[in-house]
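haha ok so turns out i had the wrong file open the whole time. this is the CORRECT one, sorry everyone. sequence first:
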Amino acid sequence: MLKVLFIANNIPVPNQKSNRIILTIAEKLAAQCDISFIYPAVFIFPPFSFLKKYRVFAHLKPWKDWNFLIKPVHYIRFPWKRWSYLLMNTIRPQRFIDTQNLPDVCHAHYIMPDGY
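then structure:
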């Protein structure tokens, strides 16, 4: 069976509405494919982390939606545009992907905010 990994941050997060198109596509593929999800979740330092738009990501844990387990991957993003992605190289994909069971296809949507 074909293994597909979706990397998407434009899917609904618990207690927050969002477009379900990515989950709809995954649901249609699930009959023929083994689907998994990674959600890139930004970590913002205080006091910015208290802003409503970032608060939902502070303690985001894996959740299920439409029978898919969605695993958040937290990364640090500084609030200033010049240094926003200074620490991107600290993300280690092997921590989030089972290297013994690698996907055949990665389907990424907005892997990092702002098209980085």
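The chain is about 10% helix and 30% strand.
again sry for the mixup
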